[in-house]
Amino acid sequence: MNDEKKTVHATVLGYPRIGANRDLKRALEAHWSGRLDEAGLDAAAAAIRSQMLDDLASAGLDSVPTGVFSLYDHVLDTIVAVDAIAPRHRRGTETATYFAAARGDHEAVPLEMTKWFDTNYHYLVPEIGPGTAFEARPEKALAEFDEARQRGLAARPVLLGPASFLLLAKASDDAPTGFDPFDKLGELTAVYERLLSALVEAGADWVQLDEPALCADRNESELEAVGAAYRRLTPLVDVMVTGGYGPLGESLPVLVEAGVHGIALDLVRGRGDIAMLESLNVSRETSIAAGVVDGRNIWRTDLLAAAADLERLHRITDRLAVSSSCSLLHVPVDLEAESELPSSLTDRLAFARQKLREVASLADSAAPRLQRPAAPEHWRNETVRSRLHALPAGADRRADYAERVAAQPELPLLPTTTIGSFPQTAELRRARAAHRRGLMIDADYHARMRAEIAAVIAEQEKLGLDVLVHGEPERNDMVQYFAEQLTGFATTAAGWVQSYGSRCVRPPILYADVARPEPMTVEWTSYAQSLTDKPVKGMLTGPVTILAWSFVRDDQPLADTADQVALALRDEVADLEAAGTAIIQVDEPALRELLPLRSDRREHYRRWATRAFRIATAGVKTQTQIHTHLCYSEFGDVIDAIADLDADVTSIEASRSKMEVLADLDRADYRRGVGPGVWDIHSPRVPSTGEMAASLRLAVAAVDPGRVWVNPDCGLKTRRYEEVRPALANLVAAARTVRGELE
Ligand code: GLN
Ligand code: ZN
Q1: Number of the ligand closest to the Cα of 419
Q2: Does an H or E element contain 30, and which?
Q3: Is 385 among the domain residues?
Q4: Is 381 within a domain?
Q5: Looking at residue 702, which CATH number applies to its domain?
Q6: Looking at the whole model, is its pTM more than 0.85?
Q7: Other beta carbons less than 10 A from residue 315's beta carbon
């Protein structure tokens, strides 16, 4: 007994499900294009699951999560598990139904997709109405549980918890106003009772219910409902509740009182939960999974610091487990695939497979507890540090907006522009790939890019746009392009992470002090400007977005790293300006993504995020116009931040919300230029002149017409010229029409 008390269990909360070589992506794409039938897809999926289990089993964990594979998205899997598929998506086979919901087809639009908490993963939003009749469909959970059991593994089925499922859902279109999916928690809990019972019958003694929504602020009545739901579930089986995205905070006492048998803590972002638990009357029989291994980032764990947290938790419980802070979904599979990275860097990294070993070794009291070594001296850049230190007070402030507008380029009323990228053709991608592999010499590559830029400029002149762009043909990705040219960043060969469905991204690694050795965009922008008398907008990615879409060093505050990136961009902005660029756009589509889930952390975020943007942009002359672009229209929580960026013009998504967002911006006292997207570029539809003119009329009615810009919703890189040409022609015509009405 005494021995058992001392034993620390090792587990993780979830595992990457795209396969070690993006096998899922290949299988899905083959299936969607008709090259692989359902049986073939099932076989590919089974092979990936088998590899996942191999990885988990060979790492020496004491229990493994099951049901964490997904063909597309785990929220969609939960929709299936509770039979909440929207009627418009039901098809002849389960697989066809699944993909109709995920991707839509000629009959039905797909479910909406949105960001999963403060990550770059996207989930499918359940549509719930008063009439949604939940049913238990435990087949997937049972099958995957069985696969693990057949191998003799101690398996722990994982489901998205009922509260988070409903908190992530939206009311279906036919629901009466005021209907809140969360009101159905009681009904849904009854279905979870059946799901859990089915798993118990199959031999499960633990079930993991993920409740990431409890890592955000929740009100009294929500917490009360959560408590009631869990009081019904805990008698059925040993329930382990996870948060995973920061502190569970005030949800902890609710869960403890509801009698949950285990709680998984995110001890990377939510260490305050230890003190919270210490203050509660927790039974020593309660299992605590200490999430000391970061599931969101790729740095090796500081084993010494982690051991100290484990020690503290051991004073609360006899049943301690070491685990990842959340599912390992957000990290690449295997560091071994990286042969090009310097060992000074790889020595400090752990991808999913390496993290499994960290967990196992932390659970083994005989294993050595090493402190993480300090970063090599040459990773520090004293010049950058002293330049930041020496930035004069107010270096992030520009002249008053009124003074700026008066000095800035004179443009027609309702100026027309685009967001930056033009279609990325297969031919362009081939040229970039050939250049990267050394199969195309620099001179040929540059000639190819220049030809593309010239074509894009000619297109825009012909269309009659007022502010032109160079079209971004040279950019593989809006973050990676910069990461490849800044010091302090490394890019991986195969560090793929699922973004959604078959879509994977390869975030760069920001590991050291950041500096910009040479201009990154000036050559292309200046070339574009040399071809036209119209102003060409310079195009950069902002500091917050660069951080959000990279794996960022965790040995200093994010704010300090943001300042360094901002300083590098400030240099770029200065060089663009010196080269004659009168308008510079700094995109921040991820401004909202990094917003902390807890309101008490938001003010701090707003301060450093907007300061970094201003460091990047405020060095310019009064005459230089700064634009920014955000990819969404629901800015409720970041509206103050948008105003604080102090850009002269902000372009936003607005066509789907019928310009209602403009009133929000006005209410927040945003009084500068605004470009509400009048063309939803996420759809292949070409909007008519009349449609866009109608949007513009709404815009000029909502805000001073002198401040309104006319542009699409987002960049055009995913669209084809067949859509872009007519849509932009209509956009220009719409601007002229409404201009005529105003003059
Ligand atoms: N300038 C970028 C483009 O047009 C902006 C992309 C984005 O907002 N995600 O592609
Ligand atoms: Zn965008």
Answers
A1: 1
A2: helix 23-32
A3: no
A4: no
A5: 3.20.20.210
A6: yes
A7: 9
